[in-house]
Amino acid sequence: MGQGLWRVARNQQLQQEGYSEHGYLTREQSRRMAASSISSTSHRKQVQGGIDLYHLLKARKSKEQEGFINLEKLPPELSFTILSYLNATDLCLASCVWQDLANDELLWQGLCKSTWGHCSIYNKNPPLGFSFRKLYMQLDEGSLTFNANPDEGVNYFMSKGILDDSPKEIAKFIFCTRTLNWKKLRIYLDERRDVLDDLVTLHNFRNQFLPNALREFFRHIHAPEERGEYLETLITKFSHRFCACNPDLTRELGLSPDAVYVLCYSLILLSIDLTSPHVKNKMSKREFIRNTRRAAQNISEDFVGHLYDNIYLIGHVAA
């Protein structure tokens, strides 16, 4: 046992001094072998690093060769299709690279008409020096002015020849535009009832269920936050327009403008009752039918029940 331990200790000492079990190595040979091993390892790392660097440079070079697609080398219809997906800001930036393409009148005409669907100037012979890019800037400026002061905004459009001084033209512009602030628009329509009358006639409620038609109406002409004369005016105008668009339906159901007026008020009250978190005891379907038929006796219970279901499932009519 003691001899075995002695051999192990002796072998470890010989290895440290440059010996091995099979022969003798000088310290110089040991150093050369170690240096050779280190050099080989270093060479492998350099080779590996060289391969990685080569692939990196190759990939970078290929990306530089690819770059951005040059739209001027594509067919014009394809280039215009690509640029048509850009908004006004991005199209202005694209004009720094592809000036002729990005400044094309058809692109800016599409931007104008997709944002402001109707302007009086669209139906006129364009004046000298007219461009749709300039028109877009004027329309954007006029919309911002309207959202600050509606009267000044409309006057700006008229001063630039964009809109004619006509209630019908103003109503068409409002109906086809979604960039106007609804609070300012509500104030403007309350003051300009002539524009409001023409705006109501632009709605088509044919074959629409009453609550859905009322929602569409209030999406364009926002209801006031409180009850009052303006809300009564809106509901009255809506009732007459709804009956005018659905003469057969109103005859079959026994509806009249007065009956639709009552139903609209009932739908608004029901919407508040069902959606308000402050009302704990919600109105039941039976209660709604009973209360509504007291005001509109000629309306069937089934129709009133469908009205309740619509508000219960879809939500507020004036949200």
Automatic annotation (TrEMBL):
Keyword Transferase: no
Name by which UniProt lists this protein: F-box only protein 8
GO-annotated biological processes: regulation of ARF protein signal transduction; ubiquitin-dependent protein catabolic process
Entries under Gene3D superfamilies matching the protein: 1.10.220.20, 1.20.1280.50, Arf Nucleotide-binding Site Opener,domain 2
F-box domain boundaries: 68-111
Chain segments annotated as transmembrane: none
A cellular-component GO term for this protein: ubiquitin ligase complex
InterPro entries in the cross-refs: F-box-like_dom_sf, F-box_dom, FBXO8_F-box, Sec7_C_sf, Sec7_dom, Sec7_dom_sf
SEC7 domain sequence ranges: 133-314
Biological source species: Cavia porcellus
Keywords: Guanine-nucleotide releasing factor
Function as written in the Swiss-Prot or TrEMBL entry: May promote guanine-nucleotide exchange on an ARF. Promotes the activation of ARF through replacement of GDP with GTP.
One example GO MF annotation: guanyl-nucleotide exchange factor activity
Acyltransferase in keyword set: no
CDD domains: F-box_FBXO8, Sec7
